[in-house]
Specification:
Glutaredoxin, 8 helices, cytochrome c-type biogenesis, alpha/beta, Thioredoxin_CS, 7-stranded mixed β-sheet, 7 strands, Thioredoxin_ResA/DsbE_sf, signal-anchor
């Protein structure tokens, strides 16, 4: 009788070993970490939605250049095609107006056509790029598509601005700007940040005046 507890202890130990081995080898494809890793990527957004948004191709350097300033090394997406882009490299060599917005921001919606009008006036003298500062890229593209539909109905020019997708608001953080939208970050040709404007622009002349004052470019 004294040997029975010992036998049971050996049997229990064996069961524990088998269970532990099964747990160690069990596939973890359905675990929480794997589910997060398999979240839909930007490239899974359909090309039809990107085209309807009117987002132009993001600026890209013709030759191999290095990015400088606080935006260097950031990896953002391009709203036109979802491809990664380093804003400092893409904008190197010319002043830039980066307009930070989000799909849920009503003043941003009103301001975007004004930015587009200024971009048409500025031409190649200044790079005008929007920066969607929110994780909802599909919602941003849908909002732009809806805005373009509205502009067409009104007989107004559609939006054809390049845009960066910045889900973590890294551009805002790099500029030291407050947590508010819209914000426009003014970047010098050497990559340094001249200033940020934490308010919506009233009209094209308002933008032109600020850019002339902060970046020294008159258009």
């Amino acid at each position: 009788m004294s040997r029975v507890p010992v036998a049971w202890r050996w049997l229990l130990a064996g069961v524990i070993v088998v269970v532990a081995a099964a747990v160690a080898l069990w596939p973890r494809d359905g675990g929480g970490e794997q589910t997060a890793d398999r979240a839909p990527a930007a490239t899974e957004i359909g090309p039809e939605l990107r085209a309807a948004s009117g987002a132009a191709q993001c600026p890209r350097p013709v030759d191999t250049v290095e990015g400088h300033g606080p935006l260097a090394g950031l990896s953002l997406g391009c709203l036109a095609d979802g491809r990664p882009v380093d804003p400092a490299v893409a904008l190197a060599g010319r002043p830039a107006v980066l307009n930070l917005w989000a799909y849920w921001c009503e003043p941003c919606r009103t301001e975007l056509p004004i930015l587009a009008e200024y971009a048409a006036r500025a031409g190649s003298a200044v790079a005008v790029v929007t920066v969607h500062s929110d994780p909802g890229e599909a919602k941003a593209l849908s909002m732009l598509a809806a805005l373009n539909k509205q502009l067409r109905a009104e007989g107004a020019p559609e939006l054809r601005l390049p845009g960066f997708q910045d889900p973590d608001a890294r551009v805002r953080a790099a500029a030291g700007a407050p947590n508010a939208l819209p914000i426009t970050v003014l970047v010098r040709a050497d990559g340094t940040i001249a200033d940020y404007i934490a308010r919506p622009f009233h009209d094209v002349d308002d933008i032109a005046s600020i850019v002339a004052d902060k970046l020294g470019v008159t258009v």
